[in-house]
């Protein structure tokens, strides 16, 4: 009986996640085009026809319509249901770590914004200021719901990575984007300095692997977005930072 109740609860959290993921798709599509995501119904990016409510069910509508617009028949990118699925799975993962709590709400909200930043940075090589400002909301709330991260650690976290990144940009123009610097400043307040270092290390590791792959493929474009890998690092630090850091200390007997 308990197992069934847990299943229903996790299913409920998953449904919340994919519904929010559907909204994130709207944000990801509209923000770079400077279209308001707060009003107006969803529409097909090809024929501009408004999507009917029963054709706008997260994940399932894509499968039912076989990945095509119900009006014009043009293919719809599989990225839309994947973003919805990822948001749903993220909601479940955060719930597994924090349970049904304000901490879950703060971390999931941060993760949702990080998904938008990731996809938009992949698409446009920019991180919109509006999304960085939006990330400040869960960052500020984390001050109240994650009291174990002290105010001094948070203040140091603002500068521990963003300041060196800014200094590097002054020496090597375009080494990092301005959005990356702002992102790490806000994330630094949310995480504290130790977890911010961890998030950056993970971002550098992932970004380095991708950069090495692109070089091996002799890709002509020498620029790549760094924000997505920082976002993965930030989310990993939010969820598993304490575990990873403790494992590191134990590894060296500290």
UniProtKB/TrEMBL annotation:
Coiled-coil ranges (or none): none
Gene3D superfamilies in the cross-refs: 1.20.120.1220
Name of the protein in its database record: Prepilin peptidase
Entry keyword Transmembrane helix: yes
Principal location class: membrane
Location within or outside the cell: Cell membrane
Transmembrane segments: 6-29, 87-120, 126-146, 151-172, 192-216, 228-249
Family according to the record: Belongs to the peptidase A24 family.
Domain Prepilin peptidase A24 N-terminal: 15-96
Pfam families, per database record: A24_N_bact (PF06750), Peptidase_A24 (PF01478)
Keyword Transmembrane helix included in the entry's annotation: yes
Protein topology in the membrane: Multi-pass membrane protein
